[in-house]
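Hi U.,

Before I forget, here's the chain from the pilot set. I'm dumping it here mostly so it's searchable later in email.
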Amino acid sequence: MQALPLSPYLLLAIGIVAEITATISLKLANGWDRPLYFIPVAVGYGISFFMLALVLKQLPVGGVYAIWAGCGVAGVVLVGHWLFAESIGLRELAGFAAVIGGIALLSR
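Structure:
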């Protein structure tokens, strides 16, 4: 297996940020009302899956997917709170705790 030129965790972080950007852009598109937002949707998901494919060359799929999904969900919730004033209550905080615990267990 050939080593990647960059840390697989850095590539994973880039992929996660791209995925969060794409998902938030879906919200900004407001259905099909603002179709230009589908440009960052397509680019973001494309980068995201490309990075995931590179990372999976070196790291186990279970741990990678746990980090990917957990950080993606947490990032979307936080950005949704920041951009759209979506609430973060006790239920969401409990969900964050569960996600972090799951990532810790699966990524070892």
